Amino acid sequence: MSKSSPNPNSSPSMFQTDFPSSEFSARRQDVFDRIGSNAVAVLQGASPRGELELFRQSNEFYYLCGIEVPYAYLLLDARSRKTILYLPKRNIDQERSEGPVLNADDTDLAEKLTGVDEVRRTEEFSADIADAETVYVPQGSESEKHHNPLDLLDTHPTRETRFIQRLKDFCPQVKIQDLSSIIFSLRTLKSPNEIKLMQCAGQLTGLAVTESMRCTKPGIMEFQLRSVADFIFLANGAKGGGYPAIIAGGANAWYGHYFRNNCELQDGDLVLMDYAPDYGYYTSDIGRMWPINGEYTAWQRELYGFIVEYHKTLLKLIRPDVLASQIMDEAAITMEDLINRTNFSKDYYEKAARKALEFRGHLSHTVGMDVHDRGDYRSQPLVTGTVFSVDPMMWIPEEKLYIRVEDTVIVTENGMENLTQLAPLELDDVEIVMKEKGILENHHLIKYFE
After folding, report:
1. Confidence bin at 441 (pLDDT 50/70/90)
2. For the whole model, what pTM was predicted?
3. pLDDT band at 251 (very low <50, low <70, confident <90, very high)
4. Are 33 and 18 in contact (CB under 8 A)?
5. What mean pLDDT do residues 406-424 have?
6. How far apart are CA 363 and CA 390, in angstroms?
7. For the purposes of burial, counting CB atoms within 10 Å of the CB of 185, is it exposed (0-12), middle (13-18) or buried (19 or more)?
8. Of 70, 188, 268, 353, which one has the greatest count of Cβ atoms within 10 A?
């Protein structure tokens, strides 16, 4: 998982090393093609999270230039098909404390790293868009997630909304259009460099889940399994988790996006884990359920075993040039035969299994820079380079049981590649792994809580 810099004269701390400038240039050309010859697109970079907190650029901004500098701006002018990057001026005091930061004085270096046509100071941005008539701006980015409409006392607009208002102040005649949907559609198909990052993210995801299985035993806390995963992520170069960890013991698994992770794991229960890293701005997605005491009970094997078989059936059927709905229909035929041959211990278990075949969301969301990435892959036949999660699930409301298993896959020329396959899937394999000693025991961390 080592990374090599495409530019030996630049500091790795100043710029990403996963993508060459040519890839960013190609992405921007795609944007030009989609917004039309008389429009411009503008993006504001993210603001700092806080003093001495690790900065993370917005996904849209990073996707088009790779810059990881706060308060940067990007102008894509389709009228000239040129891109201008705006950077803050050099801050000597900041560099003395934190090290070099790419800035407006690094014109030649920034142009070489990003492939943009020009680098200017941020204060020049407003004058450069004064004559624009149609401006595309991201309107569905991460910044909107921080605004809670239920907080009646929060009357402050989002940063995204304020940016759009400022654009209208600079050029009152402007017509605002949404850029997010264009970028989301471009992100649906992954390039070879993106696939490499997602393969690494998938491997770390599988390693983290496997190690968490080793560490599981009655009496430990859900958040301890999250700490195991975080260690695996950080020790291998990830920035941390790609999304809030779902580590749900027992009844907590009924809540699909349970994230508090503050309960003790109980003997006889299952635990659900869904957690993946932020690796080079890309993540993965996974779901595994295992017995807290190390051995599946009869009912756990019955239900989770059924979903694992459904999962394996779906994986085998994934291939290019077919619709996701066709794969679901083919899998349902196989699984209906299995249901007919199975003696379920309870009538409502069988009912839940049959209802699972009616649910159309088992081939789930796309995955990429966001765990629930944007982009529609279901309305047309699958294409090589599409990454999505396979997530068969079933609900048993009579016992408030939610059973699921998930992997992230990429469509290949001959079928698919399972990016998270390192995590044990077969129930017997899970039980074998759980007999091995985990890092929590090796470092005597569990005793602290006893």
Report:
1. confident
2. 0.92
3. very high
4. no
5. 98
6. 5
7. middle
8. 353
Tokens at 421, concatenated: 């396959």
Which run of H or E residues covers position 86? strand 82-87
Q: Provide the sign of the torsion angle of the four alpha carbons 437, 442, 448, 450, taken in this order.
A: positive
One-letter amino acid at 160 equals E
Pairwise CA distance, residues 275 & 240, whole Å: 10
Residue 1, pLDDT > 70, answer: no
Query: Which tens digits make up the pLDDT trace of 129-152?
Result: 988 999 999 987 544 444 566 666
Q: Which residues pair with 394 in a beta bridge?
A: 403
Q: Which amino acid is at 59?
A: N
- Tell me which residue of 270, 310, 273 sits closest to 391, measured CA to CA: 310
Q: How far apart are CA 25 and CA 64, in angstroms?
A: 8
Helix (H, G, I), strand (E, B) or coil at 394: strand
Instruction: Find out whether 87 and 69 touch, Cβ atoms under 8 Å.
Output: yes
Interatomic CA distance for residues 444 and 446, integer angstroms? 6
Amino acid (1-letter code) at residue 418: N
Q: Which helix (H) or strand (E) holds 442?
A: helix 439-442
Q: Which residue has the tokens 């389709």?
A: 78
**Alpha-carbon radius of gyration of the chain:** 24
Cβ neighbours for 135, distance < 8 A, ≥ 6 positions apart: 39, 40, 41, 42, 129, 167, 171, 174, 175, 176, 177
Residue 406's φ and ψ, nearest 5 degrees, are -145, 145
Q: In the beta sheet, which residues pair with residue 334?
A: none
> Which residues, listed in sequence order, are joined to residue 76 by a DSSP beta bridge?
41, 83
Alpha-carbon distances of 106 from 39, 102, 121, 138, rounded to whole Å: 28, 6, 11, 27
- Rounded mean pLDDT of the chain? 92
Query: Which stretches does DSSP call E strand in 236-291?
Result: 246-249, 270-274, 288-291
